Automatic annotation (TrEMBL):
This is HTH cro/C1-type domain-containing protein. InterPro entries: Cro/C1-type_HTH, Lambda_DNA-bd_dom_sf. One of its GO terms (molecular function) is DNA binding. It comes from Legionella drancourtii LLAP12. Residues 25-80 form the HTH cro/C1-type domain. It comes from the Bacteria.
């Protein structure tokens, strides 16, 4: 019998994005989708080792691989628009 995948809760998404947070998000999405690491990596077209490194928040991974995994798992990343008039030049949130 196959090992059951423990579903992880979605982490708090109301905080600044870090490699560690994105790794937690990816792992939560994978486990909530009942995907083994090997299957998720194959689905996203990346090596299992690459997928594992990203889930563990290693910042040395290539951005293209991170974006490929996010796309494959249906995780949407957005850039918050900023004001172009200089009023918020010190507001880097």
């Amino acid at each position: 019998m196959a090992k059951q995948i423990k579903k992880l809760k979605t982490p708090n998404l109301q905080q600044p994005l870090t490699a560690e947070l994105l790794g937690e998000v990816i792992k939560a999405r994978r486990t909530q989708s009942d995907l083994r690491l090997e299957d998720a990596a194959a689905l996203c077209g990346v090596a299992k080792e690459t997928f594992m490194k990203i889930e563990h928040g290693q910042s040395s991974c290539q951005l293209a691989s991170v974006l490929q995994i996010c796309s494959g798992l249906g995780i949407n990343l957005y850039i918050k628009p900023w004001m172009d008039n200089g009023e918020d030049e010190n507001d880097w949130r």
